[in-house]
């Protein structure tokens, strides 16, 4: 019975309730391990257990299936004393009685509550975005199912993907694999402008074009066309208004943290649910992590910080002292064989140096940002063999001055006098 403390031998186990069942929850349970003082219940609003959202693009494109991207079986949860309740949407929090209300009327008691409610696609306020069929985001199994069914019902469907960030690029690739006629629209001149520079963007653009994806940069959507279903997107490009025909439109224009549950309960919120370095909200009995939370003014949409938060919170829940700090996010993308890894800033600030190597014919581009001999940023395209070494070097703050001449080509060699290919210094 949910209102009772679960016991194991003579040691009572406290009730830990987690709202949400995405990457943050999966990482948290994994880091908690099997030896912890909690009886855990996970309440997820999707009708399935945890699946790897990173694999939504291959799922959309038919390269994988749901069982293959659902890594946890019943024994994994049982070993960690975790009960998962799929399709269990939480609608309210009673902080005074320490319990949450589910949509089906069930009250679930907690000693500690963790909010891992994630985020949703942020749709721009364009006419028709909320009313036309064939328009939406790409964040969930339901989104992938909807897009797949629409493409299958319309062979050669015309798809417009708005936003060429990480998710937009993945959506475009998945739709192209389904046989859709895809146009990727981006407001900025540089694709994935938070992770890439102009040179890396050019390589990515060439790869996408080779796969049959049209890319339009400097292109700003103005409105959606259609009576009941979308038929096109009106855009402004170079000061000229034009219409892109569309049977479906996918917006990948950012995310909005799901903070509504926390705000309704009176928790302190900004853009997300505000937490301290121990992932504690303004209520000491409630923690938050992942895409729904806000720490020191930052919100999160990449994997690295979410996993780092999960590790910290797991230690806190085991009674240890741990504090979160934002890591330099390592972003990995693979587009039809083109590997891209980025870590930290990709443009040098004042007082920093840039080392770069480019081989367009081989599809290879490497760029390192250094400051006083220490690595501050990494951008690798095509050749990503040493990305983990660079990540360790950046996080450790190691002085790499002695390795400068080989840093782009053979960074793991100890002989600092051996040179590789020529290195340009900006």
Automatic annotation (TrEMBL):
<dbReference type="InterPro" id="IPR023753">
    <property type="entry name" value="FAD/NAD-binding_dom"/>
</dbReference>
<dbReference type="InterPro" id="IPR036188">
    <property type="entry name" value="FAD/NAD-bd_sf"/>
</dbReference>
<comment type="similarity">
    <text>Belongs to the FAD-dependent oxidoreductase family.</text>
</comment>
<dbReference type="InterPro" id="IPR016156">
    <property type="entry name" value="FAD/NAD-linked_Rdtase_dimer_sf"/>
</dbReference>
<feature type="domain" description="NADH-rubredoxin oxidoreductase C-terminal">
    <location>
        <begin position="329"/>
        <end position="397"/>
    </location>
</feature>
<keyword id="KW-0274">FAD</keyword>
<dbReference type="InterPro" id="IPR041575">
    <property type="entry name" value="Rubredoxin_C"/>
</dbReference>
<dbReference type="Pfam" id="PF18267">
    <property type="entry name" value="Rubredoxin_C"/>
</dbReference>
<dbReference type="InterPro" id="IPR050260">
    <property type="entry name" value="FAD-bd_OxRdtase"/>
</dbReference>
<dbReference type="Pfam" id="PF07992">
    <property type="entry name" value="Pyr_redox_2"/>
</dbReference>
<dbReference type="GO" id="GO:0016491">
    <property type="term" value="F:oxidoreductase activity"/>
</dbReference>
<protein>
    <submittedName>
        <fullName>FAD-dependent oxidoreductase</fullName>
    </submittedName>
</protein>
<keyword id="KW-0285">Flavoprotein</keyword>
<feature type="domain" description="FAD/NAD(P)-binding">
    <location>
        <begin position="15"/>
        <end position="297"/>
    </location>
</feature>
């Amino acid at each position: 019975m949910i209102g009772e403390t679960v016991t194991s031998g003579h040691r009572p186990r406290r009730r830990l309730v987690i709202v949400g069942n995405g990457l943050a929850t999966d990482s948290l349970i994994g880091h908690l391990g099997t030896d912890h003082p909690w009886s855990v219940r996970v309440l997820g609003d999707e009708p399935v257990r945890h699946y790897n959202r990173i694999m939504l693009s291959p799922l959309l494109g038919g390269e994988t299936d749901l069982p293959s991207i659902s890594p946890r079986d019943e024994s994994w949860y049982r070993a960690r004393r975790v009960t998962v309740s799929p399709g269990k949407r939480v609608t309210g929090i009673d902080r005074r009685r320490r319990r949450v209300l589910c949509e089906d009327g069930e009250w679930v008691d907690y000693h500690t509550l963790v909010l891992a409610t994630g985020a949703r696609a942020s749709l721009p306020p364009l006419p028709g975005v909320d009313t036309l069929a064939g328009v939406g985001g790409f964040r969930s199994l339901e989104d992938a199912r909807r897009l797949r069914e629409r493409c299958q019902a319309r062979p050669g469907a015309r798809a417009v993907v708005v936003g060429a960030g990480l998710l937009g690029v993945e959506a475009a690739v998945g739709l192209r694999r389904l046989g859709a006629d895809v146009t990727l629209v981006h407001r900025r001149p540089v694709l994935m402008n938070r992770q890439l520079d102009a040179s890396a963007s050019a390589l990515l653009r060439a790869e996408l074009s080779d796969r049959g994806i049209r890319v339009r940069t400097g292109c700003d959507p103005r409105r959606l066309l259609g009576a009941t279903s979308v038929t096109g997107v009106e855009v402004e490009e170079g000061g000229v208004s034009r219409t892109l025909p569309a049977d479906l439109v996918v917006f990948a224009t950012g995310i909005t943290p799901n903070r509504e549950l926390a705000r309704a309960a009176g928790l302190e919120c900004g853009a997300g649910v505000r937490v301290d370095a121990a992932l504690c909200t303004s209520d000491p009995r409630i923690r938050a992590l992942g895409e729904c939370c806000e720490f020191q003014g930052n919100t999160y949409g990449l994997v690295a910080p979410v996993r780092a938060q999960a590790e910290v919170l797991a230690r806190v829940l085991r009674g240890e002292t741990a504090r979160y700090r934002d890591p330099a996010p390592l972003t990995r993308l693979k587009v039809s064989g083109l590997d891209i890894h980025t870590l930290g800033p990709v443009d040098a600030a004042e007082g920093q140096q840039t080392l770069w190597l480019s081989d367009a014919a081989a599809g290879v581009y490497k760029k390192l940002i250094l400051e006083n001999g220490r690595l501050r940023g990494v951008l690798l395209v095509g050749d990503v063999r040493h990305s983990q070494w660079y990540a360790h070097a950046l996080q450790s703050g190691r002085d790499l001055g002695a390795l400068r001449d080989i840093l782009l080509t053979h960074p793991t060699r100890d002989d600092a006098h051996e040179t590789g290919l020529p290195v340009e210094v900006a």
